[in-house]
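S.,

Sequence below, as promised.
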Amino acid sequence: MMGAIWNLLLALAWVTLSGDFSGANLVVGLVFGYVSLILIQPQVPALAGYPARVPRILRFLVFFIKELVQANLRVAFDILTPPWYMSPGVIALPLEARTELEITMVANLISLTPGTLSLDVSDDRKVLYIHAMFLDDEEELRRNLKEMECRALELFR
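The prediction came back faster than expected:
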């Protein structure tokens, strides 16, 4: 978290000193700040792990946007075509997430994806119950959701 704050501060300093208050210049400042933080990381213990986390975040964003687009297209296709291909159902997904933050993040990411909705977490916090709009292949859905969970947990661990 400390690395992200420093990166943002360096980017804002770049924008201020360059005098160009545009989004593109902010991105340039973020890149320069990131490179600067990589260079000083060995001397500043508070920055440990930050340079490795940014590529994981970018990979996760690309993965999640791809999943989001695919789910939107599937739901839109089902809505626009006369015969409905829905086969709704509820599944139980065993969780690898342990902390409240991890469980909340996984549940929200699943709910953000069209066609799935997080319903409840078991009392022992080991199972997440999910309503799926398309439950044709339960094992495939479970694999896709586990992949999303694993990628999300990479961001926190």
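The radius of gyration is 20 Å.

Coffee later?
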